[in-house]
Recover the amino acids of this structure.
């Protein structure tokens, strides 16, 4: 008995040693942290809010999961619109450096899915070219197997690409850079507010179409495979093909919803998400557009987004290909109100500051001529809000329309120290402003140098 116990103890010790060695083995694969799905909103044409479950693994270096979550919460705490927070969270959960990843995608590169007509054409060809059965001698069995094979090829040619469409669509959205993810969310959110369907409903209808085709195809295959004669097998083939095609056409709206979703997102204007950008921030009607026009090279491009009645004006400063070239962005106005009441237009502004390699140019018109909504005191309060939200961003205060006096009741001491007075009308300090912006973007964290000129 003592010998048996000693042998058992030795065996247990040996097994424990092997287990430890395996866990420490350099051949053990490393499982990277899984990226969290992006919460998107799709309308009738596209989508509405749908949050995926976040899956995470322990961080390297002994960092606990709770610590990771706390750090992520701090990074996104400045988000003033749900889309900005969702996009920032997506960026925070990206796979760590060195892990297997296909890298970020772009909205403009969303797959161009095949429509119902193209899929039906491919399915008919697949059925016509299905390899014949190898059964010899028995005419009934051979006819039944041939019919079943053609039906299977027809059904697969319709259902498999549809399944891959949804898989590719989801994967593409998950891999978007944070700013483009915010653009998608803001756009789709506004379409939902116009009476659209949520993402879950759009994707569910798309999948229900596929399931209906598969279910009908399986039933037709079973009928053909059990045919009692060659003639019955041939009739079952024709009826089965017609029935599967009829179901596919009846449910094709689910396919078109996803196709139109991809088209809508693909048409969104493109911003260079890895190039530095000077973001002009301020309340409405304070002169941001005039500054972009006066300081950027060429005619600034006005990008229209479905969620805003005003465009996003994007210009470039510097020669194309020059290492000091940067983007200059005029954003929708930010109003004085609580953070949780901001709309999609304000969300775009905050997304640009938070999710792009940006420097902030806060523009104020303190002359009192830009309307009650943008009164000078309100502008100064909005400045404090934005400055507190982004304390580490390179920052420059600009007083536009400096050819006009300060509003009544406003003293020079009320103007933030270091504010640059600019008058586009008189040309005052326009060149100095351009020089300040170039200096600021050179200090933007994460800036990628341009190609040599």
């Amino acid at each position: 008995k003592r010998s048996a116990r000693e042998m058992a103890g030795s065996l247990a010790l040996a097994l424990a040693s092997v287990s430890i060695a395996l866990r420490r083995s350099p051949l053990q694969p490393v499982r990277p942290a899984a990226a969290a799905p992006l919460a998107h909103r799709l309308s009738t044409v596209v989508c509405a809010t749908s949050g995926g479950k976040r899956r995470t693994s322990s961080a390297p270096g002994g960092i606990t999961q709770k610590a990771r979550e706390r750090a992520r919460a701090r990074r996104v705490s400045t988000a003033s619109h749900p889309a900005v927070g969702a996009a920032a969270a997506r960026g925070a959960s990206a796979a760590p450096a060195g892990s297997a990843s296909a890298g970020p995608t772009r909205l403009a590169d969303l797959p161009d899915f095949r429509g119902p007509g193209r899929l039906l054409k491919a399915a008919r060809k697949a059925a016509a070219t299905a390899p014949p059965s190898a059964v010899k001698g028995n005419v009934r069995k051979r006819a039944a197997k041939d019919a079943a094979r053609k039906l299977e090829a027809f059904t697969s040619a319709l259902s498999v690409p549809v399944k891959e469409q949804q898989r590719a669509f989801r994967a593409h959205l998950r891999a978007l850079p944070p700013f483009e993810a915010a653009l998608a969310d803001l756009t789709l959110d506004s379409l939902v507010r116009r009476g659209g369907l949520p993402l879950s409903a759009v994707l569910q209808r798309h999948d229900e179409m596929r399931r209906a085709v598969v279910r009908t195809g399986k039933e037709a295959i079973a009928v053909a495979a059990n045919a009692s004669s060659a003639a019955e097998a041939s009739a079952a083939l024709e009826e089965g093909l017609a029935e599967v095609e009829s179901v596919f056409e009846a449910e094709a709206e689910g396919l078109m919803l996803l196709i139109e979703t991809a088209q809508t997102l693909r048409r969104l204007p493109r911003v260079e998400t890895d190039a530095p950008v000077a973001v002009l921030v301020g309340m409405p009607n304070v002169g941001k557009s005039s500054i972009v026009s006066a300081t950027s090279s060429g005619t600034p491009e006005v990008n229209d987004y479905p969620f805003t009645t005003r465009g996003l004006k994007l210009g470039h400063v510097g020669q194309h290909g020059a290492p000091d070239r940067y983007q200059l962005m005029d954003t929708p106005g930010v109003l004085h109100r609580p953070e949780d009441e901001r709309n999609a237009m304000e969300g775009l502004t905050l997304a640009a500051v938070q999710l792009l390699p940006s420097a902030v140019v806060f523009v104020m018109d303190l002359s009192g001529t830009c309307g009650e909504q943008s009164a000078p005191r309100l502008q100064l309060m909005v400045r404090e809000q934005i400055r507190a939200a982004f304390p580490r961003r390179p920052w420059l205060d600009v007083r536009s329309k400096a050819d006009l006096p300060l509003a009544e009741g406003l003293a020079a001491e009320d103007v933030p120290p270091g504010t640059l007075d600019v008058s586009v009308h008189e040309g005052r300090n326009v060149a100095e402003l351009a020089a300040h912006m170039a200096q600021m973007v050179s200090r933007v964290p994460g800036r990628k140098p341009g190609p040599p000129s």
